[in-house]
Structures are given as C-alpha cells and as structure tokens.
Amino acid sequence: MGDDATTAETHRSGFACFVGRPNVGKSTLTNALVGEKVAIMSSRPQTTRRAIRGVLTRDDAQLILVDTPGLHRPRTLLGERLNDVVRETFNEVDVIGFCLPADEKIGPGDKWIARELSEARAPVIAIVTKVDSVPKARVAEHLMAVSELADWAEVIPVSAVEDIQVDVLADLLVKYLPKGPPLYIDGEITDEPEDVRVAELIREAALEGVHDELPHSIAVMIEEMVEPDSPEATKDVLEIRAQLFVERDSQKGIIIGHKGERLRDVGATARAGIERLLGRRVYLDLHVKVAKEWQRDPKQLGRMGF
Ligand SMILES: Nc1nc2c(ncn2[C@@H]2O[C@H](COP(=O)(O)OP(=O)(O)OP(=O)(O)O)[C@@H](O)[C@H]2O)c(=O)[nH]1
C-alpha cells in the first residue's frame, strides 16, 4: 500500500523545450537540470519525433527536454513566420521555457520570439537566466520588464552556473506535465547501440509528413558503417549504407518521390540528425527496397534485426 499507489497516481511525465536567442544559456541550463548525462538521440516515434537533449528522472516525475531546431529571427522576408518544424515542436511539448539572460536587455529578437510563443499551445515559463552575473537590482528590473513582455504562465530567475533556483525551475516545469508513468527507463536512452539509433533517425526522416500513408510499413537496415581509415573506405568521412524497406511498390514511390526528390530530402534530414548524434561528418547511402509483407515474414524480420 501507500507509496507505490500514491506515486502511480501522482507521477507526471512529458516534454519541455527551451527557446531563446543564441547564447542565453539554454544548454547550460539543460545540463544543470539533467546533470551531465545529456544524450542527444532520436526518440521513439510514439512519443515525439524531436531529438532529446536530456531526461530528468525523479521519483515523482520524468521531464524530457527536447531540441528546438533553428529558431532564428528571419532577416529577409518581413513578417516571415517560424518554420513548421519549430512550430510543430511548440505544439508537441507540454511546457516551453523561454530564456532571457539577466545581463542583456530585452531586444527585438526576444520580442519576436515572444510573439511567436504567444501562439504556442503549451504554457510558457519565462526564465531569467544568468542572475549571478548582475547585481540584484538589475535582476529585479529585468524581471519586471520580462513580466510586461507577455502574459507568461510563470516568471522565474535562475542561475545554472551558481545553481540558483534550478530545482525550483524543475518543479515548475514538472507542474505543467500531464499525469502518467515514466516514458523512458533510465539508461535506456544511451544504452542503445549506435546503428539502432542511426536506423531510427533514417526511419523518422522517411516518415516525416507521411505518417498516415505509411503507418508501420517501413523498416531500416544498416548494412555497414565504414570508417574512413578502413580498406573498404571510398570517402574520407564515415560512410553509412542503409536499406529502407517498404511493403509495396506504391509505398516505394511515396518514399522516393517525384524524380527522387523526396528521398533526397529524407537523406539530407537523416544525415543531419546522424551527424549531430555521432558528432562527426557522415556520408549516407540510402536505398529503398520493397520487401513484401516483411512484417509477417520471420526470415525478413530476422534480417532486419527485429
Ligand atoms: N554567469 C553565467 N553564465 C552563464 C550561465 N548560463 C550560461 N552561461 C554562459 O553563457 C554562455 C552561453 O551559454 P549556453 O548554455 O551555451 O547558451 P545557449 O543558449 O545554449 O547557446 P546556443 O547553443 O548558441 O543557443 C556560456 O559562456 C555560458 O557559460 C549562468 O547561469 N551564469
């Protein structure tokens, strides 16, 4: 009785992302929240398709910090909007942390992000970062200015470097997560073999935008990863050869796209993710094959490592 039942009923789990201009302390804060064990990887498709920056696992909650790719104020087209990926991320997470450093005045970039965030589905916590770097009076002034910028769910001053209020921020983020069991078993995230994570990134890229047409009919097999200094190498970067399996010719057509355009995009997206995951340059050789009814064929499944 007691603890387990209570924990199961009150446990919260979900996703958060940090946004803000470059250099405002997002990475440092992520590390302070989750410790040094930051794993960058693709996530399970049933949860979110974003790269994970870190997971904070406590008895009462699990907070998964996901990456927000490329939040840049457009300089060219006046009134251009956020790209879809960023907006999608805002709609997938349960809570957003908007970082504004105490040692810099609120600028046009911050105002632009604030406006974009006002359309996000998730509640936004305004985080005043680096409070250790300025006098208290300045922090107070900045907090006022930030509060007036928009109608935030919360406003909180923190210092990741001096560990000021980082645990309070964790509590605040957790407060906005839905009730539910942990989504990741601790350790699972980093223990996966590299090729499985690489395959998952390719699969994710292939499914991007075509979920309904190709629900589960895609499998990826990594044939080889060739180091540049090995005798088989033909490139001076890590060469990855992968097969993408679909069940039907029509699905192959969808993946490849008109004149191979879609497959090129899939390759480019997957390669970018893989390069970030592995922290090195990669050449990705991707082929699509029809493996009919592979999901029902044990031999094929075996070959694909299922
Ligand atoms: N004094 C102080 N400096 C900090 C704090 N947090 C981050 N910094 C410094 O601010 C700089 C930028 O921090 P990052 O965490 O890399 O910022 P970021 O927002 O992730 O930057 P991008 O990756 O460029 O978007 C680094 O030099 C950090 O050491 C803090 O709490 N206090």
UniProtKB/TrEMBL annotation:
Keywords: Cell membrane, Cytoplasm, GTP-binding, Membrane, Nucleotide-binding, Ribosome biogenesis, RNA-binding, rRNA-binding. Residues 210-292 form the KH type-2 domain. GTP binds at residues 20-27, 67-71, 129-132. Residues 67-70 are annotated as: G3. Gene3D superfamilies: 3.30.300.20, P-loop containing nucleotide triphosphate hydrolases. Residues 20-27 are annotated as: G1. It holds the Pfam family KH_2. CDD domains: Era, KH-II_Era. It comes from the Bacteria. Residues 158-160 are annotated as: G5. PROSITE patterns: G_ERA (PS51713), KH_TYPE_2 (PS50823). The keyword Disulfide bond does not apply. It is a peripheral membrane protein. Its main location: cytoplasm. It is found in: Cytoplasm; Cell membrane. PANTHER family: GTPASE ERA, GTPASE ERA, MITOCHONDRIAL. Belongs to the TRAFAC class TrmE-Era-EngA-EngB-Septin-like GTPase superfamily. Era GTPase family. Monomer. NCBIfam families: era, PRK00089.1, small_GTP. This is GTPase Era. It comes from Demequina muriae. The gene is era.
